[in-house]
């Protein structure tokens, strides 16, 4: 017979999963014949699963992914230019533990954002702290932080995130001030944490979109030389999945 003080103590200890499991065991005769160790193991498994689900939910909320994507739903056909073995290896997040980077490249609509979010979610599942930002939003946040005096605090927050996903990388040429800000972000993370950038602009054109050649060299050196490259190919996924059909266009 469970007592309310016992249940209250479990709640106080934040063992909601264990409490729920204990209540279920008390109400069901099926557990009566199980050994103590097995019943205890079931309770611990229940609490562990609850905590893992809570951790994942919190991690996904903080990551703010643009799309709800997962590796299991990726189209890994060779026609898209993806190496199945490499994608599945990256999904294990060892590259994050070794502070490496990933570049997701390809034309508009090729699925770069989905792939970036899928790899980010895979890292979240493994307990990695992740943050997703489009380059335009990151630059806005940095500019606002300069204005309100929170610049150093924002840099510190970004530097402590284990995996920073930056989408739409260098879609628009940078100003000198923006280039300096991005270098601060990238330099803080170099050899300490991992960065994933998704870009439709080929790497060969990155340098010319950064106004200061010295800063351009520094950014590319910290991002490119220790990065896995994933180059997507094929038709636009938005076009293929359009309700209009494969390639059908509206007539006007």
CATH class of the largest domain: Alpha Beta
The CATH architecture assignment of the largest domain turns out to be 3-Layer(aba) Sandwich
Average per-residue pLDDT, rounded, comes to 88
Could you say which overall geometry the principal axes of the C-alpha atoms support?
A: elongated
Task: Output the strand order for the largest sheet.
Answer: 2-3-4-1-5
Task: Count the domains.
Answer: 2
The CATH homologous superfamily of the largest domain corresponds to P-loop containing nucleotide triphosphate hydrolases
CATH topology of the largest domain: Rossmann fold
Structural classification: alpha/beta
Q: What separation lies between the terminal Cα atoms? A: 74 Å
What is Rg?
23 Å
- Main β-sheet description: 5 strands, parallel
| Share of helix, binned | 40-55%
Q: What's the order of the H and E elements?
A: HHHHHEHEHHEHEHEH
What is the number of helical segments per DSSP (H or I, 4+ residues)?
A: 11
- Give the total of beta strands: 5
Strand content: 5-15%
Unreliable spans are 247-252
């Amino acid at each position: 017979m469970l007592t309310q003080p016992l249940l209250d103590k479990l709640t106080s200890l934040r063992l909601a999963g264990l409490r729920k499991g204990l209540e279920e065991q008390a109400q069901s005769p099926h557990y009566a014949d199980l050994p103590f160790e097995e019943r205890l193991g079931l309770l611990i498994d229940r609490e562990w699963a609850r905590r893992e689900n809570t951790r994942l939910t919190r991690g996904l909320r903080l990551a703010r992914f643009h799309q709800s994507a997962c590796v299991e739903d990726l189209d890994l056909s060779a026609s898209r230019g993806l190496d199945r073995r490499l994608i599945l290896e990256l999904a294990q997040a060892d590259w994050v533990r070794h502070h490496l980077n990933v570049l997701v490249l390809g034309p508009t609509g090729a699925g770069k954002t989905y792939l970036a979010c899928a790899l980010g979610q895979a890292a979240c599942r493994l307990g990695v702290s992740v943050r997703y930002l489009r380059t335009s939003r990151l630059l806005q946040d940095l500019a606002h932080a300069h204005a309100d005096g929170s610049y150093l605090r924002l840099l510190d927050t970004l530097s402590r995130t284990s995996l920073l996903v930056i989408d739409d990388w260098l879609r628009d040429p940078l100003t000198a001030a923006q280039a300096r800000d991005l270098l601060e972000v990238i330099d803080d993370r170099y050899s300490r944490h991992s960065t994933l950038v998704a870009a439709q602009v080929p790497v060969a054109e990155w340098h010319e979109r950064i106004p200061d050649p010295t800063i351009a060299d520094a950014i590319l050196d910290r991002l490119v030389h220790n990065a896995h490259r994933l180059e997507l190919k094929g038709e636009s996924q938005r076009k293929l999945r359009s309700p209009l059909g494969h390639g059908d266009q509206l007539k006007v």
